[in-house]
Design goal:
single chain; three-stranded mixed sheet; elongated
Amino acid sequence: MLTEQDGVRPEHDEPTEVLPPPDPEEWPVAEHYRVEPHDEPPPTRDETIVVSSRSTADQGPRRRFPVEPGPGLLAAVLAAALCVGVAAWLVSQGDDDPPATRNAGATTVDAPNPASSSPPAEAGAGSRVPDVVGASFAAARAELRDAGFQVRISRRTSDRRPGEVLEQIPKADSQLASKGVVTLVAARAKRDAVAVVTTPNVVGDQVSDAAVVLREAGLVPEITLQPSDTPAGTVLSQTPEAGTNLRKGETVSMIVAEAQQTPQPERIEVPDVVDLTAADARRQLRELGFRVSVERIVSNEPAGTVVVQTPRAGRQAIEGSTVRLRVSTGPQTAAVPDVTGLDEDSARSELEAAGFVVRVIYTSTVEPLEDGVVVTQTPRSGESAAEGAVVTITVARLD
């Protein structure tokens, strides 16, 4: 019976023998695929016979390549292309994402297996890995990159300062090829557990002391005032009650006694008592509910007369407050000195020294000896006058 190896298509519909799968290193050819039987006459132009230039004895059986591939070949090609694409995507994901990224959401990221990183070169080859344990991650990464290595990071909860390098893979002084990967395990701060405290009892304490106690316990005091007969500032109640477990930072509300407001005394307008006698002014003020204090002063006003009052007339003052009065003792008198016969300047100086005010009047004279001399004075010498009174002197002028 003739076969496809003889270059002649069999004329019966019996399928050809399915050969074993080809070697993966060789490209599959048409003879490795099953030829489905069909009743159509053999094609005359739709297939090509490949003939080697070598002799028939050397080349072995001739092979045919169909122009239109069968369904099995198309399925195999598509499956192979899909596998290659998926494998390439997985490889790219593994190279681009650091271990911490691929394990996003995990509490702790384990350091990658050193075997998965670039393996150390043979002794004497590559570069020495510097010791970066104890350094900050930023400083360690900069040092390793300067040495020609790639850096990956893994985090571990620790009491050490955040970011401190706890471990490095491979270890210091290892030999590693250029651009090899060094994995750093950096410290991550612990999350403190929420502290729970027992609410202290501050009822009955003064609000200032209660606030200190609550703050020392880690709680926040909140104060609400309420009128009460209890002494002002006393804590009347607290919420939550003493003994309640609270988290630090929570609020404890306190109701605190507020001082009772006493009625304000009535304010009264102060009357005008200046120029009244001290007795009349005192009686009028006391009738309005004021207290009166009196201070005696020297004044040109008649003795016993009110000269000044404080507060002034028309001001509002609280009932029971004090109104101060300054009452004149009368003018203080002194004997007027004799200044006749003195020149004008000497007479002025002597009168002012005695507490008087000097007034000068000029008059004409024909006597040369009287020129510039005081010829008369009023009041006359020896008379009494109040301190600050005016003494008039007459001075002669030569025509």
